[in-house]
Amino acid sequence: MGFDTAVSGIKAATADLDVIGNNIANGSTTGFKTSRAEFADVYATSLLGAGGNAIGRGVSLAGVSQEFTQGNISFTNNALDLAVSGGGFFLLSDDGASLYTRAGNFQVDREGFIVNNQGHRLQAFQPDTVGNITGTLGDLQLDTSLIDPNPTSLVDVTANLDSREVPPLVPFGGPFDAFATPPTVPDADSYNASSSTTIYDSLGNPHVLSTFFVKSATANEWEVHTMIDGVTTSGPDTLTFQDNGQFDPLTLPIELSITGWTPLNEGGLPTGATVQSFTVSLSRSTQFGTEFAVSTVIQDGFTTGQLRGVEIDDTGVAFARYTNGQARALGQVALVGFPNPNGLQPLGDTSWAETFSSGAGTISQPGTAGLGVVQSGALEDSNVEITEQLVNMILAQRNFQANAQVIQTQDTVTQTIINIR
Predict the structure, then answer these.
(1) How far from the centroid of its chain's Cα atoms is residue 251's Cα?
(2) Where is pLDDT greater, at 85 or 60?
């Protein structure tokens, strides 16, 4: 019996060394969680149980558990490197099968999907057509194609017209056409102030919208003329302020309507874009006794753009930035929490699978339901403590040697009995 007991001890020590060796080998593995061997004693029993003076039969490996404590966060220069600070796992799809990992070293494959080194796709809550995050899960994918241009439909101008101005001596005239032969343009002495901004047609071509303000002979009254690319589009329109320098609230909104505009190229020919109509809003403009100034000009059009970069915030929302200044939400990285993470089945490649013991995973947004937050440009280091593992290795080695000594001693006793004559 002594031989069997010692052999079980050697096997236990060997298993312990195997676990320790695996921990040390993965001391630099991103997202790795340290394991420990757990043992239980063995007794021979019958249907009536073990006797009061029963001698144990050795030891057995009861299980190998993992410690899902937080690893250190190391920062990188890659925005697609992700780390979970707190509880939870990234959700991956392996051809439809769900995998879970803490290793966030992701990259972009040739189809634009965010994947790990094994090609498993990162899962995220998908946005709707206007960029709002929904509850629908799917692969997180970068759209590397050109985004469609958006023609201008609204220009919002906030300006102050100087109430001290007097009507120009030169009439504004018009209409004007910069493509005529010879070209006709407004006389600089025929208006008090002007502003310009860039607008876009349906093909994404930029055009210059110019607005001219002419003080009227009537107090608190101005005329507004608009031109696009040097061609008159509307006017005159009349702006009437109250004696406090603001518009009468009953007359709001104050808007100029540009209708039937045909976008032209640099040669004065149609660009092929759709005939366009849009609105110029002046509702927030004022007429105070200070110099003319344009506070803001906001227009909702933009040209086409290419993907320039990706940013992921701590809530897991991935934003794509484009060369035209636009930004779009591509999705929100999903995290999964489990009632018993120790029940997860290790699959290798620093990933796990759900089991009955782990309980069903709860998929939520980062920072909710007890889950951690996502850090972009960072990776979670292995939580292996090398010093602790080296000490455990010494203890396992001593256990191995002690059990081997038991075998040697048992062999000596047995040999003594054999030698009796």
Answers:
(1) 44
(2) 85
Cα 20 to Cα 390: distance, rounded to the nearest angstrom: 8
Domain chopping of the chain, boundaries: 2-69+382-418, 74-133+332-380, 154-299
pTM beyond cutoff 0.85: no
What confidence score (pLDDT) does residue 243 get? 94
What stretches of 318-385 show up as alpha helix (H) in DSSP?
Answer: none
Q: What is the pLDDT of residues 159-174, one digit of tens each?
A: 999 999 999 999 999 8
Q: Which of 164, 138, 131, 124 is nearest to 289 (CA)?
A: 164
pLDDT band at 345 (very low <50, low <70, confident <90, very high): very high
CATH fold, domain 154-299, is Tick-borne Encephalitis virus Glycoprotein; domain 1 (2.60.98)
Q: Is the pLDDT of residue 236 over 70?
A: yes
> Tens digit of pLDDT for each residue in 171-203?
999 899 999 999 999 999 999 999 999 999 999
In whole angstroms, how far apart are CA 247 and each of 51, 216, 242? Answer: 100, 16, 6
Burial class of residue 80 in the structure, from the number of CB atoms within 10 Å of its CB (0-12 exposed, 13-18 middle, 19+ buried): buried
Burial class (CB in 10 A: 0-12, 13-18, 19+), 68: middle
3-state SS class at 173: coil
| C-alpha separations of 420 from 320, 408, 414, 415, 416 in Å | 87, 19, 10, 9, 7
Looking only at the bridges linking them, the beta strands covering 255-261 and 276-281 are antiparallel
Q: Which residue has the tokens 């009254």?
A: 221
d(CA 121, CA 136): 15
